[in-house]
Model the fold of this input.
Amino acid sequence: MKLEPLPSPIYYRGPISFPNIKLYSMARTEEKKQRQHGMGRHLVLFPCPLEGHLNPMLHLASVLHSEGFSITIIHTHFNSPDPSNYPNFNFKPISDGLQDEEATRTDLMAFISDINVNCKVPFQDCLVRLLLENPQDQIACIISDALMHFTQAIANNMKLPRIILRTSSATSFVTCAAFPLLRQKGYLPIQDPQSEVMVSELPPLRVKDLPNIGTDKLDNLYQLVANMINETKTSRGVISNSFDYLEQMAFAKIRQDFSIPFFPIGPLHKYSSGHSSSLLNHDHSSMAWLDKQAPSSVIYVSFGSLAVMEKTELVEMAWGLANSDQPFLWVIRPGSVHGSEWVELPQGFEEKTRGKGCVVKWAPQKEVLAHPAVGGFWTHCGWNSTVESVCEGVPMLCWPCFGDQRVNARFVTHVWRVGLHIENGLNRRLIENAIKRLMVEMEGEELRKRIMVLKENADCCLRKGGSSYESLHSLIDCILSL
Ligand code: UDP
Done:
C-alpha cells in the first residue's frame, strides 16, 4: 500500500484548554504589577538546531520575553526557526559551514561536533556586530544549549556570562557526568554480554540503559560529553526543562556536584500556548480524526524527529497495531525508515485497519496528547515527548532508540511506573500484547492512575509557590545580578 501525500493542511480550530497556562499567567501578571523584572535587558540565545532542542529554547525565549527581557536568537542556517512566528524576537542567522548533505546525515555526533567547530568564528562575529550596532544595549547574558559547548569559550573572550539550557532529563545529564567513572568501572563501552548488568552507582539503570549514540568513534563521543560537562561547570548556571517532583534525586546530585546555580523550570511548553516552533508542518487532519474517536481509546504512535527504523520493524509495527484492534494515530515521518524517503505499508494492512487508523507524516503532538480520545502513547522516550505525555496524563509504551531515550524509558517504567517497555526486538505478537496491556487491561489502568499524579504535580509546579515557578524567579534574579 502506498501512503497518500499529505493533505493540504486543515487547521484545527477546536477548543484546546491549557489549564496550567492560565494559572501560571494569572499568578505572573499579579507579580509583574509589583516588579519590572527584565526591564528590557538583552539576552542572546543560541539553540542546537534539532527539533527536540529548538522547541524548548524558543519556549524559554518566550517565557523570558514575557518577563521583560529583550531577546536575540542567534541560529544556524540549518534548521533555522521561522522568525515570522516570533515577531518580538530579533533573529540573527550565522554560517554553520554544513553542506546540505552533511547536515542531514545520520551521524548525529559528527553533526554536533561540526557545529561546535564551524560556528565559533561566526558566533563571535555576530556578538561583536550586535554590540557595535547598539553600544548602549549591553548583553546581560548568553543562554546556549548544553551541547553547544563552544559558546563558553566565546563568552569568556567577550567577558559575557553564559547560562546553559539542558533540554533533556536531569537524570541523563547526571549519567553523562558519570561517564569517566562508568568507563573506569568497565560499564562503558557497553559490551553485549554485560548489557543486563545493573549499574549499582545509578539505580535502576542497567548497562544497556546508558546513553549511547550508535557510533564506532567512541573516543569522539566521550570527548563531546566531557566538553559538554566541563563547559557546563564553568558556566553561570543550568536551566533544566524538568520539574522537582519528577527528578528530585538527579537535581540533588547536580546541586551537589556542580557548584553553580541550577534552575529546573519545566515543563517549558506549558508556559504559553504560543506559536508552534515545529520544523515540520503539522498535519491537523489528525485532530479532526481524533474528534470522532471514543474517549481514551486511541494509541498515539510517534518516535520523534530523529529516530530511524528498519523496514522489517515497520512491518512488525504495522501488524502489531492492526492485530491489537485498537484505534491508532501513527506518525510516520518521511525518512524515518532506513534506505527510503517514504514507505509502503504491508499489503492488506489498509483493509484490515480501515476506519480504525490514521497515518500522518507529522502531527501536532502536544494537542494530540491533550485530546480526550488519546489513551496511550507509543514513544521513543525523547525527553520532550516524555514530558508532554506526563503533562497530559497519557501512559506510555516505551521503545527507546538512542541517546538519553533509554535512560528516560527506564525511569518511565521503573521509577515513575507509568509505562511499559518494549524490549528485545520488535515482533507483532509482542506489540499486540503490549498495546492491549496498556489500553484495555487492568495494568494500563494502574499506569493511568499513577501518571495522573505526575500530571497534577506538573500542574502544581507552575503555580505561585510551585517549584518551577520559584525556580524561574531565582533564574530571573540571577540574570539580573550578573
Ligand atoms: N513532535 C511533533 N509532531 C510529531 C512528533 C513529534 O510536533 O509528529 C514534536 C514533539 O511534540 C516534541 C518534539 O517533536 O516536542 C520531539 O522531541 P523529543 O525530545 O521527544 O524527540 P527527538 O525528536 O529529539 O528525538
User: Anything to note?
Assistant: The chain has a mean pLDDT of 90. The longest helix spans residues 442-462.
